[in-house]
């Protein structure tokens, strides 16, 4: 079930009709039921895996909690953690990467003139498997580190893992943040309900008007066999708009509807296209994943504690696995390598310089923003292609086919009309250091703002049903 579907509005409306008049315990059971309906709407078989994975981590939590088993040695607890991680990554690896590694091995063997005939399985990838796997892994790891106690209530734990607003595309919630909000009674206020509604509404606008219209330009170009260089470049910039408004739109809806029912999810986007360097970008883009990779992978590898060489190696490993975590394809590995290379170069070139004047600082900031946005778009090119063959084809088109065929003025105008209102609002958000400024606007500004978004959705929302991009990850 998607947020942009009639079924979701029926489900969420039914939940709201009951949620505020029942007890906290019944609220949790209602959330669990709604979450399983929401997730099982795509394919009821997905529920089996979600239930099994959640149950497994619930049991691992008890084994890892030293207060439940004080006699268990640290070495045995470490062994239990390793087994827990292997189980989680084993499930994720089978469903997401089995065919990828088999195909890669067969291709390599053919190039080496060896015979390798390995079977491929018809595996259906469960939606959002990476997100809920990372979430429940954080639960067991935090218990092992002594930062969290295991929860006794089995149904509350199932609700924590399957909480539907963020289940299929994040933000990835740490157990330390979300689980207490499930267990303890929630503070339900009209202020949070109204602000959550407004944030979700803005998310629907970003997805249905901006992202889906940008997608028409992107898809038309990337499906051509030999597009022109200007057409590809325009499509890359259009994809930068599409993926941001698509994913940020989903996050705003997830955070907004969660706030309406008393939950506070962690921030996932903080004006990422205002980043001035690669480190700054990952503090602003998909914050829940980048912080997860930092805390559970990069730091576990040693972080920057084992010398300069190991620091760079750990950065590359983290970014390569971060790229592969999105999808089992070599162009995602290349995307991860590209961002690892940017982080490596940035750390290498960092020097102490004299403090610039305020005017120089502003100029340097905006030049850095513009420059790094171009690098980000190169990364999005690697992200958007469907395979390495298409990457080579489109790169050849960019460097050789310099005609303007296929790059129409209406497409350029569409991208400008889509980006200008979003960029204008983000400049306001940046200048005020406030990601939800509309909440504080007077009524005479707020009402036209919401009406403009409503009519934009009605008049310019695309008729095609485009799923959120990150559903496939």
What does this protein structure show overall?
By secondary structure, the chain is mostly helical. It has two domains: 6-186, no CATH class; 191-349 and 363-472, no CATH class. Helix content is 69%, strand content 0%. Helix 2 (24-40) packs across helix 6, helix 8 runs antiparallel to helix 9 (229-260) and helix 13 runs antiparallel to helix 14 (358-384). The mean pLDDT is 87.
How many helices? The count is 17
How would you sum up the global shape? globular
Given as residue ranges, the uncertain stretches (5+ residues, pLDDT < 50) are none
Radius of gyration over alpha carbons? 23 Å
> Termini distance?
16 Å
**Overall pLDDT metric:** 87
Structural class estimated from helices and strands: mainly alpha
Number of strands: 0
Largest sheet: none
Number of domains: 2
State the helical fraction.
55-70%
Order of helices and strands: HHHHHHHHHHHHHHHHH
How much of the polypeptide forms β-strand, as a percent range? under 5%
Report a brief summary of the structure.
The protein is built from 17 helices and no strands. The protein is an all-alpha fold.
Q: What layout of secondary structure does this protein have?
A:
Elements: H1 6-19, H2 24-40, H3 45-64, H4 74-111, H5 129-144, H6 154-162, H7 175-183, H8 190-222, H9 229-260, H10 278-282, H11 287-298, H12 308-326, H13 330-349, H14 358-384, H15 388-400, H16 409-432, H17 443-460
Helix pairs in contact: 1-2, 2-6, 3-4, 3-5, 3-6, 4-5, 6-7, 8-9, 8-16, 8-17, 9-14, 9-15, 9-16, 11-12, 12-13, 13-14
């Amino acid at each position: 079930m998607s947020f942009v579907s009639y079924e979701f509005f029926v489900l969420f409306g039914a939940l709201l009709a009951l949620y505020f008049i029942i007890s906290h315990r019944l609220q949790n059971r209602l959330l669990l039921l709604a979450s399983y309906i929401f997730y099982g709407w795509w394919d009821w078989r997905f529920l089996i895996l979600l239930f099994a994975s959640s149950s497994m981590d619930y049991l691992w939590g008890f084994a890892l909690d030293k207060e439940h088993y004080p006699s268990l040695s640290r070495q045995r607890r470490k062994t239990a953690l390793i087994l827990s991680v292997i189980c989680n990554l084993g499930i994720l690896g089978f469903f997401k990467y089995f065919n990828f590694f088999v195909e890669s091995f067969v291709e390599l063997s053919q190039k080496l003139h060896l015979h390798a005939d390995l079977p491929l399985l018809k595996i259906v990838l469960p939606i959002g498997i990476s997100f809920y796997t990372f979430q429940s892994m954080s639960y067991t790891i935090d218990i092992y580190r002594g930062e969290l106690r295991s929860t006794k209530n089995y149904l509350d734990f199932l609700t924590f893992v399957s909480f539907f607003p963020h289940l299929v595309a994040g933000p990835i919630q740490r157990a330390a943040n979300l689980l207490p909000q499930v267990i303890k009674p929630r503070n339900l206020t009209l202020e949070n309900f109204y602000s959550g509604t407004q944030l979700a509404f803005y998310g629907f606008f970003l997805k249905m008007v901006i992202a889906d219209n940008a997608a028409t330009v992107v898809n038309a170009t990337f499906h051509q066999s030999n597009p022109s260089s200007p057409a590809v470049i325009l499509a890359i910039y259009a994809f930068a708009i599409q993926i941001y408004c698509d994913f940020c739109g989903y996050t705003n809806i997830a955070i907004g509807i969660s706030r309406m029912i008393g939950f506070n999810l962690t921030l996932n986007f903080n004006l990422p296209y205002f980043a001035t360097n690669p480190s700054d970008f990952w503090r602003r883009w998909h914050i829940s994943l980048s912080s997860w990779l930092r805390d559970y992978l990069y730091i576990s590898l040693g972080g920057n504690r084992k010398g300069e060489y190991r620091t760079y190696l750990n950065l590359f490993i983290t970014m390569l696995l971060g790229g592969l975590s999105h999808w089992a394809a070599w162009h995602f590995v290349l995307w991860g390598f590209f961002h690892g290379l940017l982080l490596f170069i940035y750390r290498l070139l960092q020097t102490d310089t004299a403090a610039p004047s305020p005017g120089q600082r502003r100029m340097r900031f905006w030049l850095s923003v513009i420059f790094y946005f171009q690098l980000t778009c190169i990364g999005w090119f690697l992200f958007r292609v469907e395979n390495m063959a298409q990457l080579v084809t489109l790169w050849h088109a960019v460097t050789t086919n310099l005609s303007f065929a296929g790059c129409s003025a209406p497409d350029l105008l569409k991208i400008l009309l889509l980006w200008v209102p979003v960029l204008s609002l983000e400049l306001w958000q940046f200048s005020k250091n406030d990601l939800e400024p509309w909440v504080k606007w007077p009524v005479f500004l707020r009402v036209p703002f919401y009406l403009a978004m409503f009519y934009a959705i009605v008049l310019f929302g695309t008729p095609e049903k485009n799923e959120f991009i990150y559903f496939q990850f």
